[in-house]
From TrEMBL:
Compositionally biased residues, Low complexity: 1-15
Region Disordered: start-end pairs: 1-20
Domain Glutamine amidotransferase type-2: residue ranges: 95-314
UniProt keyword list: Glutamine amidotransferase, Glycosyltransferase, Iron, Iron-sulfur, Metal-binding, Purine biosynthesis, Transferase
Cofactor names: [4Fe-4S] cluster
Gene3D superfamilies reported in the protein's UniProt record: 3.40.50.2020, Glutamine Phosphoribosylpyrophosphate, subunit 1, domain 1 (3.60.20.10)
Protein name: amidophosphoribosyltransferase
Family, similarity comment: In the C-terminal section; belongs to the purine/pyrimidine phosphoribosyltransferase family.
Catalytic activity: 5-phospho-beta-D-ribosylamine + L-glutamate + diphosphate = 5-phospho-alpha-D-ribose 1-diphosphate + L-glutamine + H2O
Domain of life, source organism: Eukaryota
Pathway terms, separated by semicolons: Purine metabolism; IMP biosynthesis via de novo pathway; N(1)-(5-phospho-D-ribosyl)glycinamide from 5-phospho-alpha-D-ribose 1-diphosphate: step 1/2
Length: 589
């Protein structure tokens, strides 16, 4: 049974429906003044819309064909991992990007901006800087502070740089997939950093390999470089436009060449990308405004969905229409969990959004209680909103350790819930004998929630009432967020009452889906709710299994078939496709 916010409901249905894709018009060059103002509506960005019906949607399987590939206790290197998935049961943003043009300390500012975006990826970091028309790169596995030091930053002089932080499961073979990627081709060199996920990656890669392309990584970002290299369009930015015309899915990217910095956002605007300017005139692009704040850049506006921004010394900042864009579908989870509370994402304050989520929860799912606490850190602002609306004191009932290393040694006598206890410590003075409301941002598998409830009850809480500041998650994300397959999502398998019994709390309530949309008001249609509804704005034709990480990212020495285990092909009836879509023969790769 799939979960509804407050009661059980029938299982999620997955209808086959018709959708449209959008073809590329001749790019329209528009110069935008960079004024310090709040985000304009994406619909204000000029594009000529031409719709062409293309291939029909089809449902995808949630069966994970490689679940047996992993042992319960060892990672790909045969080592005991520092934390199991159960102890870190959250969706993960897979990366963050930065681009800086026109500052003599571009790489150092890039380093600081990446530090501000560290929450978007902790497993790898890299910077590419341009000096004397040469692209120089430093990448590494680990946190930003672990990858870079003074001597490495000294290797990256120049006034232009791009940077990237990446999330993935750990592995010795991950380094070659750490971005930014740099490639040389007949017209020079180009570097790229990408936040998002391409849902047609495999088809594009197969097409390119059939034409002789050779790949060094298993990252979908490398496909973009190949598409740019084979393009015959002029000038350079038109090669990017032509390449992006072939992409489906989510991408917020920054490119660097010998003399240009380019920022691109996909037509749906799934992933965030903002633009700012420092007092010396340097232009900055970043995934979140918190990165701008740290390097003292003023937030100016978002990169619009479907927009290419080209920055060079000759023409300054130029805006180009990438392609006609449909209704924006911005990721709602940026406001629920991913972004920092002090960021402005999609033109909205993340702090204000989360506070409002908590207020709605208190109104729609009240309960008699003595204290409101949060699961730190992501549940804190919603808990403050709940407490304020309910008129109940908010207290710090769980203390999060910020000093847990990437590895630890567990005693031979097993400690129950060891991973959770290492990170969260209950405050008995706050919890003992109390009726406690615990606010968290989401429940994914439910395993961490059950351990937290047990932790709080062992500290003497009289009652534990879980309040979740998002609707139930019933679908995987294919647009740049690492989530489990649908069969692992507890809300896709159980009713709210069944989940309550599983995690052991006295009551459980989610943020109602309709209340979430009502709270967003007129902006509600601009968000993607696929993880809550199962309705995907861009239906994936090929689905990369989540949490696979880099277990096959070892150079892909074998043929393309060697990575089949890491992919699920959605069920397809080719006869039906041909009947529904007269363009099938032309559009099928």
């Amino acid at each position: 049974m799939a979960a509804s916010p407050l009661s059980s409901s029938s299982a999620l249905s997955k209808p086959i429906s018709k959708h449209h894709s959008f073809s590329l018009n001749t790019p329209q060059k528009v110069t935008f003044p960079l004024l310090p103002k709040t985000l304009q509506k994406p619909s204000s960005f000029p594009c000529n819309h031409v719709l062409h019906p293309q291939k029909s949607e089809f449902t995808t399987s949630s069966k994970n064909p490689i679940s047996d590939f992993f042992s319960a206790n060892k990672n790909e290197d045969g080592l005991v991992p520092p934390f199991s998935d159960d102890d870190d049961d959250k969706p993960r943003e897979e990366c963050g990007v930065v681009g800086i043009f026109g500052d003599p300390e571009a790489s150092r500012l890039c380093y600081l901006a990446l530090h501000a975006l560290q929450h978007r990826g902790q497993e790898g970091a890299g910077i590419v800087a341009v000096n004397n028309n040469v692209l120089q790169s430093v990448t590494g596995v680990g946190l930003v502070s672990e990858v870079f030091n003074e001597s490495k930053l000294d290797q990256l002089p120049g006034e232009m740089a791009i940077g990237h932080v990446r999330y993935s499961t750990a592995g010795s073979s991950m380094l070659k997939n750490v971005q930014p990627f740099v490639a040389g081709y007949r017209f020079g060199s180009i570097g790229v950093a990408h936040n998002g996920n391409l849902v047609n990656y495999r088809a594009l890669r197969a097409m390119l390999e059939d034409n002789g392309s050779i790949f060094n990584t298993s990252s979908d970002t490398e496909v973009v470089l190949h598409l740019i290299a084979i393009s015959k369009a002029r000038p350079f930015f038109l090669r990017i436009v032509e390449a992006c015309e072939k992409l489906e899915g989510a991408y917020s990217m920054v490119f660097v060449t010998e003399d240009k910095l380019v920022a691109v956002r996909d037509p749906h605007g799934f992933r965030p990308l903002v633009m700012g300017r420092r007092s010396n005139g340097a232009v900055v692009f970043a995934s979140e405004t918190c990165a701008l704040d740290l390097i003292e850049a003023t937030y100016e506006r978002e990169v619009y969905p479907g927009e290419v921004l080209v920055v060079d010394k000759k023409d300054g900042v130029q805006s180009v229409c990438l392609m006609p864009h449909p209704e924006p579908k911005q990721c709602i989870f940026e406001h629920i969990y991913f972004a920092l509370p002090n960021s402005v994402v999609f033109g909205r304050s993340v702090y204000e959004s989360r506070h409002a989520f908590g207020e709605v929860l208190a109104t729609e799912a009240p309960v008699d209680c003595d204290v409101v606490i949060a699961v730190p850190d992501s549940g804190v602002v919603a808990a403050l909103g709940y407490a304020a609306k309910a008129g109940v004191p908010f207290q710090q009932g769980l203390i999060r350790s910020h000093y847990v290393g990437r590895t630890f040694i567990e005693p031979s006598q097993k400690i129950r819930d060891f991973g959770v206890k290492l990170k969260l410590s209950p405050v008995r003075g706050v919890l003992e004998g109390k009726r406690v409301v615990v606010v968290d941002d989401s429940i994914v598998r439910g395993t961490t929630s059950s351990k937290i409830v047990r932790l709080i009850k062992e500290a003497g809480a009289k009652e534990v009432h879980m309040r979740i500041a998002s609707p139930p998650i019933i679908g995987s994300c294919y647009y740049g967020v690492d989530t489990p397959s649908s069969e692992e999502l507890i809300s896709n398998r159980m009713s709210v009452e069944e989940i309550r019994e599983f995690i052991g709390c006295d009551s459980l309530a989610f943020l109602p889906f309709e209340s979430l949309k009502k709270m967003l008001g007129s902006e509600s249609p601009n968000f993607c709710y696929a993880c809550f509804s199962g309705k995907y704005p861009v239906m994936p034709r090929e689905v990369k299994v989540k949490r696979v990480g880099d277990f096959l990212d070892d150079g892909l020495n074998g043929p393309m078939d060697s990575i089949d285990g890491g992919w699920i092909q959605g069920p397809r009836d080719l006869n039906v496709e041909k009947e529904i879509d007269p363009l099938y023969q032309k559009s099928n790769i």
